[in-house]
């Protein structure tokens, strides 16, 4: 039975770039390999973008390397992209909100509305020091991811 008592985790950042500029970056999930400390590579499967697009991801933490499969489950042009990880049931999303000064607020969320799979919980306990410790790592990695998105988007907006 999946671990079902899982609170969402979230991180937010403000970016001095218009939403269209930020969206052009975040809507291409292959970019996650540049930003996310755990995503080493992301391969689209079938070449589709948008809702229903599928990806094979290679993840890495230290010497550990593992594959995951993802499918885009929410896609609202210019506003939100969300993908579900098949192996652990979690849904990751990036939501964009315009700010009063013409910039963009980006909110990254990891939620587990269907819980986290037994296999994932077991591997997390063995390889990552347990669910609470790994959740802390994910929260810190979300901040790193958003900081990298901010740097790319602001550089693009300046050019």
Automatic annotation (TrEMBL):
Domain of life: Bacteria
InterPro entries for the chain: Polyketide_cyclase/dehydratase, START-like_dom_sf
Pfam families on file: Polyketide_cyc2 (PF10604)
Protein name per its UniProtKB record: SRPBCC family protein
């Amino acid at each position: 039975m999946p671990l079902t008592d899982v609170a969402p985790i979230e991180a937010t950042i403000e970016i001095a770039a218009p939403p269209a500029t930020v969206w052009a970056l975040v809507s291409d999930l292959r970019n996650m390999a540049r930003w996310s400390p755990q995503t080493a590579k992301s391969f689209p499967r079938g070449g589709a973008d948008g809702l229903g697009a599928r990806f094979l991801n290679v993840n890495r933490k230290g010497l550990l390397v593992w594959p995951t499969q993802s499918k885009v489950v929410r896609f609202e042009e210019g506003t939100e992209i969300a993908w579900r990880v098949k192996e652990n049931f979690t849904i990751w999303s990036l939501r964009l909100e315009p700010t009063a000064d013409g910039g963009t607020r980006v909110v990254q969320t990891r939620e587990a509305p269907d819980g986290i799979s037994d296999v994932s919980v077991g591997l997390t306990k063995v390889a990552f020091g347990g669910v609470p410790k790994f959740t802390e790592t994910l929260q810190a990695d979300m901040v790193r991811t958003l900081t990298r998105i901010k740097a790319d988007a602001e550089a693009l907006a300046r050019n």
